[in-house]
Automatic annotation (TrEMBL):
The keyword Ribosomal protein does not apply. This is CDP-diacylglycerol--glycerol-3-phosphate 3-phosphatidyltransferase. One of its GO terms (molecular function) is phosphotransferase activity, for other substituted phosphate groups. It comes from Solirubrobacter pauli. GO terms for cellular component: membrane. The chain crosses the membrane at residues 21-46, 106-127, 148-164, 170-187. Keywords: Membrane, Transferase, Transmembrane, Transmembrane helix. One of its GO terms (biological process) is phospholipid biosynthetic process.
């Protein structure tokens, strides 16, 4: 009971504070930029931790927005936009490191790794786009094996263990899972839109 009262008190104080969901979103974005800078320095563990913390901020801003009632339409737009940018910025830094350091690639080589990284960025963006486009058509589209949370886990593991050459297979896995998810969502939307429309009684 005491723990629950403490949590309630903390939540109320947080809601009453000046903290906004946009501030949390921007903090997550800044941390992902810091992650990219650390990756470019070859500091994989530090870069991975910064990316993980930044991604946690991305999951908290939406919850805090609903809990505090401080959310705005622009805040939701900003959150979604920054989410897409963060993943791309970090993967761009990874691609640069593939070019710089041949020791990072042991499966297919640096050129292939850079190409697959670009494909991973594109596929990740398409995962988000297919959901947004489907919802614009009135179809809920959260299906697929690689939503943002799964992609964050895969990329985080690759970054934290980047010094052990884990980033190359992580990028390949990320790209493959994102591509599969895009097709899963395409087929899901196609199936949903083919359903007969029933007139309201």
């Amino acid at each position: 009971m005491a723990t629950r009262d403490y949590q309630t008190e903390f939540r109320n104080r947080l809601i009453e504070s000046r903290l906004t969901p946009n501030a949390i979103s921007l903090t997550g974005f800044v941390l992902c930029v810091v992650s990219a800078v650390l990756i470019l320095q070859g500091w994989w563990i530090a870069g991975g931790i910064a990316f993980i913390v930044g991604s946690v901020c991305d999951t908290l801003d939406g919850r805090y927005s609903r809990m505090s009632g401080k959310g705005t339409p622009f805040g939701a737009f900003l959150d979604s936009t920054l989410d897409r940018m963060e993943e791309g910025i970090v993967l761009a830094a990874v691609a640069v490191q593939f070019v710089r350091d041949d020791d990072l690639t042991f499966i297919f080589g640096g050129d292939v790794a850079v190409g697959v990284t670009a494909l991973a960025v594109l596929a990740s963006l398409m995962v988000s786009y297919t959901r947004a486009r489907a919802e614009a058509l009135g179809v809920e589209c959260k299906v697929g094996i690689a939503d943002r949370a799964v992609r964050v886990v895969v990329l985080s593991a690759g970054l934290v263990f980047g010094f052990l050459q884990a980033i190359e297979p992580a990028v390949y896995l990320l790209a493959a899972m994102a591509i599969i998810t895009v097709f899963q969502r395409i087929f899901h939307v196609r199936s949903e839109l083919k359903q007969p429309v029933t007139d309201a009684a």
